[in-house]
Amino acid sequence: MNFNEQLEKKTGEVESVLAAYLPKPEGFQSKVLEAMAYAVSAGGKRLRPLLMRETAALFGETGEGLSCFMAAIEFIHTYSLIHDDLPALDNDDYRRGRKTTHVVYGEDIAVIAGDGLLNYAYETALRAFGRAVTIEDYQRTEQAMHILGRKAGVYGMVGGQCADLLAEKPETEVTEEMLLYIHKNKTAALIQAAMTIGAVLAGADEKAVAQIERCAENIGVAFQIQDDILDVTSTLEVLGKPTGSDEKNHKLTYVAMHGVEASKRQVEALSGEAVGILQAFPHRNAFLETLVEQLIYREK
Ligand code: FPP
Ligand code: MG
User: Fold this and answer.
1) Cβ(189)–Cβ(156) under 8 Å?
2) Best mutation site among 187, 231, 300 for ligand 1, i.e. most ligand atoms within 8 A of its Cβ?
3) 227 lines ligand 1 (CB under 6 A)
4) Alpha-carbon torsion, ordered 143, 145, 149, 151, to 10 deg
5) Is the pTM above the cut of 0.85?
6) Which of the 8 DSSP states describes residue 95?
7) Which residues surround ligand 2, an ion (CB under 5 A)?
8) 238: CA distance to ligand 1 center in Å?
9) Nearest CA owner, ligand 1 atom 13
10) Cα(145) to centroid of ligand 2, in Å?
11) Under 8 Å between Cβ of 132 and 113
């Protein structure tokens, strides 16, 4: 199987995991459950669960709990997109080629659909404890829970989002340091969570987990710069969401600071370093390496 066939197969497997954990719309809470399912089933790249599973494969076997964390991280990612698109934040009507959740279900339901997904994510991850067989499984699950909470919260994605919102205010002077903080937290933190949780659940040692954390940081920052490049160079048809959104929101990005060409070189350098870290492990995962490299050529 070539890379694209493997990617399709593996993405399909992630879809099945998500479908298995997604709650069914029923009862008086039907509407919020429908909105949650609408947002999750919009079919993104499923990059975070994929990265989690492929990083785990780099270090060996995991217990049954891995799939709980794969679903949980995609639920958290999806909640963050629902909230990010809201009129109070980025005010975007399209995402992944479809109308955003608040456009379809209204702002009120979209807010609680995000809340619902965030809570349900932890409920789902906690199910991994029930799958633990050995004391090691149990301890690794506990460590994974800590990583998830930390990296998704105020010392991770939420913190990055806070700085990002401040950076949009005209009175804020955005420095390169602040911009890097935003990228490292808003985007890279969740990718770090995905990859380090995979490593931890597969029993990687502390040093290896630290290297994976560094690798994921590079991937996350490269990914975000690429996102900002596409916002300038792509189209609604290719990207599935409106372009020029950063300029509309007066957002100072790496691209605005350094230009498209320098930004592209930076993406390549960061991705190169990330792949270098992966290649240095005794066990190689060619699929994972290609997946990371593909971020350079990502067009949506
Ligand atoms: C696109 O991911 C998403 C990003 C580049 C990250 C943006 C981060 C936020 C919007 C954080 C918001 C935080 C809060 C607390 C509201 P992707 O290209 O993987 O999307 P896909 O899943 O659609 O493919
Ligand atoms: Mg946005």
Assistant:
1) yes
2) 187
3) yes
4) 50
5) yes
6) E
7) 84, 90
8) 17
9) 80
10) 27
11) no
For residue 215, give the 3-state DSSP assignment. Answer: helix
**Ligand 1 in contact with 157 (CB < 6 A)?**
yes
Q: Which atom of ligand 1 is nearest to the CA of 187?
A: 6
Contact of 156 with 150, CB cutoff 8 Å: yes
44 lines ligand 1 (CB under 6 A): yes
User: 221 pLDDT exceeds 80?
Assistant: yes
Sort 30 into a burial class: Cβ within 10 Å, 0-12 / 13-18 / 19+. exposed
- The amino acid occupying position 122 is Y
Burial class for 267, CB neighbours closer than 10 Å (0-12, 13-18, 19+)? buried
Amino acid identity, position 260? V
Tell me, using a 6 A CB cutoff, whether residue 186 lines ligand 1.
yes
> Which residue puts its alpha carbon closest to atom 5 of ligand 1?
224
User: How many whole angstroms separate alpha carbon 133 and alpha carbon 138?
Assistant: 7
Report how far residue 279's alpha carbon sits from residue 261's, in angstroms, rounded to the nearest whole number: 27
Instruction: Pinpoint the alpha helices (H) of 202-253.
Output: 206-233, 236-239, 245-248
How do residues 112-147 score in pLDDT, each as one tens digit? 999 999 999 999 999 999 999 999 999 999 999 999
Per-residue pLDDT, 294: 87
